[in-house]
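Is it possible to get an amino acid sequence alongside its tokenized fold?
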Amino acid sequence: MQHRMILVATLCAVLATPAFANPHVDRIVSQLKAEGYNSFEMERTWLGRIRIEAEKGDIDREIVINRSTGEVLRDYLVEEGGLFSDGEDEDDDEDKKEEEDEDEEDDGDDDDGEDEEDDDDSD
């Protein structure tokens, strides 16, 4: 029981640092929680700003704010599996089928009368 009290007291002391007791941080974190974000990490940058990192499913969000004014200096959002992801698109197979169908339709029309011109030249 005593170990648990020491652990709780240490945790409270660490979380009660001035960077995290900022009302601007509390406001932003509560907004992020309302939007469904979880797993928050907060730290102070070398320039004295506060960086808040949050996750929601496949979305990672990083917000940097001015410690004294609360101004949002950067709000960066990254979605895993985005445009340049390593994974395959769900509709890749459909795209391939459409391309194959178009190729099959065009096979009969590829000549465009070129054979007729060649026959005329040989006369």
The domain at 21-106 is CATH 3.10.450 (Nuclear Transport Factor 2; Chain: A,).
